[in-house]
Q: What sequence folds into this?
């Protein structure tokens, strides 16, 4: 990969005039940008998984207590036990731990210091259970020995789990798996003040990569609080495609409305969270209007689409349903492969480069529908009606979209495609002899999510040839609607609607 170089360092003679410290900072930032960034782990997902794990642990502890505390003189009512005791106490334990603030990454890491609070929360739950048993006169069904054994088993289980969790989280933090890679837009005194405040947040877990600013005068110095200015907002677009960025913070005042809008029009196409620093704004909103990094308030502008649990749900849906479809459609795919082989010479499958998530170049699998000596790997020339490059079997495959079936391998094994999403376009595809991004404003915003085999555009008639600006405009509008309105139910609906949409073959050649 060619190292990223911002425009302000490409001017003749400029680099030689930089002080040594600035050159060192820029070199360090380039090294960081070129090195692979480990994928970030969602705090929301991890905290949710811990809740589920502890719910199950309390259930298991109850089972153990039931088995080992049972005596011939006590006969427990198993229906009451399973339907009331275990779930009620397990839910109560999770709610109690949540109420005392023990479901946070910072707390996971420092468990030994919070052990007494955890024990107190569990004791409170079992104390309430003990009072409820006495009030309802259920001592014969749930004797105190059972509740005490359950409490002890639960305390040991949670203590062991939290100790292991502390070691795991500490290791993940040292690996940078929770760090949000952050850049600032806007330099000067506002950026300096924000960086100093962020530096005082002990649990912020931010990694500031640098600053981008369109200003080139004295209001935007080359280095702010030890962080280099890396270029303009246009440079930031290229930078974000070369390395992982999780968060962009604008340090501009909310009163700079026009300047903010101009920059947001460029950055909204990126799959990142965008925030406006509010620590110096005189205009105050209600507390719930802000998100916070430690105690530093931020105003939410854009959120990364399909994040946290939504991303987990979509990932599982793609892999499970994709694998099922691959098995169900295996006989059909085998028949198609045989037909291709009998119809013309050449490989059955071919790989084509397409634009994927965050405008990355990916390779997708397709059944070969053209003669081997006429394959167009870059799709420099769109297939048109009666195109002589297409084989006899290829015409049928393209009409029915059966040539797309091998992309299930991308979904299940490579993970660079989803079942449902914006269709990935070829690298050199054009509409009216112009690149798609030149035809449609905000075209690259469709790359904020992983592309799919089928999508909202395909079931609304926008499949096949995209030779005019209207066709690509309609497809992109559908893609953006899908991204903004995503739900797992929408994916299911699109999958069921796709076979019926394939019956419309007017634009598929």
A:
């Amino acid at each position: 990969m060619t190292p990223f170089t911002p425009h302000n360092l490409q001017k003749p003679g400029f680099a030689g005039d930089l002080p040594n410290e600035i050159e060192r900072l820029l070199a360090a930032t380039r090294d960081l940008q070129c090195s692979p960034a480990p994928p970030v782990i969602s705090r929301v997902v991890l905290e949710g998984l811990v809740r589920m794990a502890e719910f199950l642990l309390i259930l298991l502890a109850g089972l153990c207590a039931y088995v080992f505390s049972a005596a011939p003189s006590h006969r427990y009512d198993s229906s009451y036990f399973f339907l009331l005791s275990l779930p009620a106490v397990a839910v109560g334990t999770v709610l109690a731990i949540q109420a005392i603030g023990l479901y946070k990454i910072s707390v996971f890491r420092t468990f030994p210091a919070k052990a007494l609070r955890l024990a107190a929360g569990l004791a409170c739950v079992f104390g309430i259970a003990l009072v409820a048993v006495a009030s309802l006169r259920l001592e014969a069904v749930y004797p105190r020995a059972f509740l005490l054994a359950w409490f002890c088993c639960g305390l040991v289980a949670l203590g062991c789990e939290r100790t292991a969790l502390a070691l795991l989280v500490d290791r993940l933090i040292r690996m940078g798996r929770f760090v949000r890679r952050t850049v600032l837009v806007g330099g000067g005194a506002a950026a300096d003040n924000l960086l100093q405040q962020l530096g005082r947040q002990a649990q912020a877990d931010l990694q500031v990569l640098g600053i981008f600013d369109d200003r080139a005068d004295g209001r935007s110095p080359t280095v702010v609080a030890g962080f280099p200015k890396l270029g303009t907002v246009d440079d930031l677009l290229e930078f974000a495609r070369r390395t992982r960025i999780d968060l962009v913070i604008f340090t501009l005042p909310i009163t700079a409305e026009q300047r903010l809008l101009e920059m947001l029009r460029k950055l909204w196409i990126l799959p990142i969270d965008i925030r406006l620093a509010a620590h110096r704004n005189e205009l105050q909103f209600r507390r719930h209007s802000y998100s916070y990094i430690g105690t530093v308030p931020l105003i939410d502008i854009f959120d990364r689409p399909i994040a946290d649990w939504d991303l987990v749900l979509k990932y599982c849906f793609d892999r499970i349903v994709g694998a099922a479809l691959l098995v169900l459609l295996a006989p059909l795919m085998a028949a198609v492969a045989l037909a291709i082989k009998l119809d013309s010479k050449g490989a059955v499958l071919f790989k084509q480069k397409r634009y994927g998530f965050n405008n990355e170049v990916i390779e997708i699998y397709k059944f070969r529908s053209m003669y081997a000596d006429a394959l167009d790997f870059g799709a420099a020339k769109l297939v048109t009606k009666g195109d002589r490059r297409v084989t006899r079997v290829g015409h049928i495959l393209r009409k029915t979209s059966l040539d797309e079936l091998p992309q299930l391998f991308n979904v299940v094994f490579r993970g660079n495609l989803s079942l449902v999403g914006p269709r990935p376009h070829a690298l050199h595809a054009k509409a009216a002899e112009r690149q798609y991004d030149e035809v449609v404003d905000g075209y690259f915003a469709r790359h904020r999510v992983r592309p799919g085999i089928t999508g909202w555009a395909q079931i609304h008639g926008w499949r096949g040839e995209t030779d005019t600006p209207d066709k690509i405009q309609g497809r992109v509008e559908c893609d953006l609607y899908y991204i903004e309105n995503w739900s797992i139910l929408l994916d299911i609906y699109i999958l069921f609607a796709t076979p019926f949409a394939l019956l419309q073959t007017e634009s598929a050649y």
Summary: The chain has three domains: 7-37+179-302, 43-174, 309-501. The CA atoms of residues 145 and 423 lie 62 Å apart. The two ends are 36 Å apart (CA to CA).
